[in-house]
Structures are given as structure tokens and as C-alpha cells.
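Our preliminary data section would be incomplete without showing what the modeling component actually yields. Below, a chain of 195 amino acids is followed by its predicted structure, encoded as C-alpha cells that our downstream tools consume directly.
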Amino acid sequence: MKYDIESIRKRNKNVSRAKKIIDVIIIILLYNIILVFISCLNKIDDISFFGLKAYIITTDSMKPSINSFDVSIVKKEAEEELNKGDVITFKQNGNVITHRITNIENQDGKKIYTTKGDNNNLEDNKKIEYSQIEGKNILTIPKLGFLIKFLENKIVFLVIVLILLILLFFKIKKEEKKEYRREKKKIEQEKRNKD
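Predicted structure:
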């Protein structure tokens, strides 16, 4: 590894570029996490990110595979992609339910789905149609629902955002000080080289 001024400048420039790229990626991820959280809180039904929606599980009907306060990430799938054994989230009588498909049958040219919670003894009373299905479970995030419910409190959310903004401000100031010191050292080194 070279330690001349030009090599150090190149490394610093590469590190600076990498930091900027990482910052952009973090901002994009945070933005999308916020969208998923909003979707998870069910305040706005139509919010999805790349076709993904998130739901907080509020019952133990899917234990042990999915527990209370786990977050289920679902993706809308084509009707022919749904199979027996898939965990789906659907709406029925104004409720959002996450259960497993136990049977698929054709009635009058339509597919009808029978569902059941893993922890339930009986299948669900009412069968559902494809139009009621919000999506197929593709990921379960354990216990994230506790955090989301905690952040649902507006005061807590604002305090956390404020803390993050303060930390970001201090990070920017720290980087500015580092850059100032680098420039000062560079100028001093150039003066020494001239002498």
C-alpha cells in the first residue's frame, strides 16, 4: 500500500464516494421501511412497496409458525400461483386474517379457498374468493409489531425522529471538521514541500 499524497487522496476520494453511496442506500431503505410501517398500521390500505404489504399479526391462530406481534410481509400473487399450504392474508367481514390454505376447489368456474389457522382445531367457517386475498406471506419478521405499535404513538415517533435528526446533524458537523483538518494538513504539507 502506497503512502504518498496522491495515493492517500485517491483512497480518501474512494472512501468519500462509498460513504455517499451508503448514505443514499440508507435513505432509500428508511423511506421504504416507513412505507411498510404505514401499510402495516393499516391507516392507508393501498400503500405497498413493490407489491409488498405488511400486517401485524394480532392473534395466536397461526402459532407456532407466526406469533402475535410478528409482522407478516405479503405479496399479491396471481391466482394460479396460490397453492394448498400457502399462508395468505385476506379480508373477510372487515377483518384482516392471516391463515393457511387447506383446500382449493372450483365452483362455477371460480376458485374457492378453504383456510385454517395452524393453531385452530377447525377450518374457517366461510370460504373465500381470490378477490378477498391481499397476498401470500413471503416473510415473517418476529416481534416487529411491538416496535410498530410503540411508534404508533405520535409523541414517541416525533421524539425518535428528532433524535435521529440531531444525530445526523452531529455526523455532518463531524465530517466537516474532519474535512477541514484534512485540508489544513494538506495546505501545511504543500507549504513544507515548497520550502
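The chain has a mean pLDDT of 84. The longest helix spans residues 154-194. Preliminary results of this kind motivate Aim 1 of the renewal.
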